[in-house]
Amino acid sequence: MDKQEQLLKELTWNASYRMDESLRMIKICLDKLPEKVIWQKPNKSTNSIGNLILHLCGNITQYGIASLRNLEDQRKRDEEFSMTSGYSKHELLQKLRDTISEAKKAFTETPLEELLRKRSVQGFEFSGIGNIIHVTEHLSYHTGQIALWTKILNNSDLGFYDGIDLTVKNK
What we know:
mainly alpha; Four Helix Bundle (Hemerythrin (Met), subunit A); 2 strands; 62% helix; globular; DinB/YfiT-like; DUF1572 domain-containing protein; DUF1572
């Protein structure tokens, strides 16, 4: 395996790991919430957890699947935010899980030339690698919003790192 292939493998492994971590955290949040609050909005300028998950699925599909695989962009972004019901928390989690799985597959199957090629998504010009970074950080960003809203609703710690000593120093 040459250096470029090693670099690509390392990039896609780390992006996949981070996406799985976000998915794990979102599942913890959903497990701690009753069904009735999934579509509840904190106020008029914020989104419900249901909207955020639909938004994540749309964004991941647009940037991480359709763009990398050169598929037609069929995203209907406005619908992600206008819905007020239609999916249970279990269905939302499964939709997100399936979308992330498909994106991770696209990451690893996309040839290096395609990962280096610039493309336009939502009017932004990024390489395929840029799209992978965008998908990963965008998922993380909204995972934080879901976590904060869950903490506010439950007034409790989420236990994301229970059993892990996070005070261990770097070696």
